[in-house]
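G., the chain you wanted modeled:
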Amino acid sequence: MLQIEVSSISVYTVIMFIEWVEEYGVGVESIDRQHKKFILILNKLSDALDEGTEDTALGEILDELVVYTDYHFATEEKILRQTHCEFYDEQVAEHRKLRKHLTELVMKSHKNRSEVSLELLHFMKDWLTKHLLQQDQKYSSCFIEHGIK
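Predicted structure as tokens:
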């Protein structure tokens, strides 16, 4: 929860769709920073839904999500390959599944933006939290042992 002081008298509370919690961290600053960016993108979509602007915002947010997903996955996969981490194949397979689903959602978004916005938001929240808490934790010690920051 983020509190914003608007004046010396009133404080508004903004409830984010997803908040970063330390349990999501893998102990590698550069990767954790990228994971936090995913949360920001999803919160942007949540805000658009709350404001009723998802029809105009979805295309831009989907584009940002797809581009950032490719960037992040390329970063993780490069480090996994360089460190000879045993979870490389498993991680790449998970990444492929998400890319495929995002591609399907992009195609579907041309027909029904509001429906896709909600589907994307809930799917990504579920996928991201599970992926951070389970999948990415597997490589954490490998990255740290190899001095990845």
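The chain is about 70% helix and 5% strand.

Shout if anything looks off.
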